[in-house]
Amino acid sequence: MFCSTELTGRIERAEADLNAAATRAAQARNPAAFTIRIAGGVACFAEHGSPFNKVVGLGFAGVPTTSELDEIERAFAAAGAPVQVELAHLADPAIPALLTARGYRLESFENVLGRVPAPDRDRPSIEVRRSDDDEFEAWLQVVADAVAVPDEQGVAWHQEFPREDYLRAERDLAAAGVARYAALRDGVLAGGAALRLTDGVAQFAGAATTPAHRRRGVQSALLRARLADAAAGGCDVAVVTTQPGSKSQQNAQRSGFALLYTRAVLVKRPDQEP
To answer: Which of 24, 53, 238, 244 has its CB surrounded by the most CB atoms within 10 Å?
Structure first.
């Protein structure tokens, strides 16, 4: 799959919209939460410790102005949080220079992989099904247990979240309309994953397998099931975000995903000067 600037922009808009929807869900318990549109992207603060506290989607609808960046930085500073920008490498090349001149520092990278969705023709050895609301609490505990023991292959994830913060974030994603999937091995709930379809983009919004069931095909089964649903939903691209060199990236590539682009994670902390 060739990843054009147009396709990257569409994926980044989907990512920004998902982040904003989850942040709006968090506003129900935290009135200080905010979403601010900026140059085609969005700056979000949900609550302290949330994975949604970041700026997403910059670089595909112009370069942010000085006054726009001032507003964003003031908002995060008032919340006592750093400004974290996740910037696609195909974004407007003027933006990295602009951000580094303002004191942003490169802290990490993440990879966005994609492929054309297609139904799975093989009979799976792991049962995967949609997980409904009656199973939500059990599903939450399984994915939280899995995330608490990360796979050690490749570059470590650039952020770690306490269990309670992670659980609240998953509830916010559910409120934002993200569909959940459960994987069962020998009748036991072994892992979970999520999927969101928008504007022809199938967003694979996280997947996790409990340690006791790893290396048994659970992740691959979750990928195949969501690919089939993405194809049935009319999507022309499925995307997954991974850390470079991780087991998640390896599983995705085994399922036909290829590297589309990389995001640089640039951070400016409240006490950081240019």
So the answer is: 238
Tokens 């997954």, residue? 240
Q: Is 85 helix (H, G, I), strand (E, B) or coil?
A: strand
* HEC profile of 230-249: HHHCCCCEEEEEECCCCHHH
Measure CA 87 to chain center. Answer: 13
- Considering the entire predicted model, what is its pTM? 0.90
Query: What strands, in cross-sheet order, belong to the sheet with 105-115?
Result: 34-38, 41-45, 54-56, 83-88, 258-268, 105-115, 237-242, 201-209, 188-198, 179-185, 127-130
The Cα 141–Cα 35 span in angstroms is: 28
Q: What is the average pLDDT across 2-8?
A: 95
Asked if residues 204 and 171 have their Cβ atoms less than 8 Å apart, the reply is no
Residues 6+ apart with CB under 8 A from 97: none
Reported as a single tens digit per residue, the pLDDT across 108-148 is 999 999 999 998 777 678 999 999 999 999 999 889 888 76
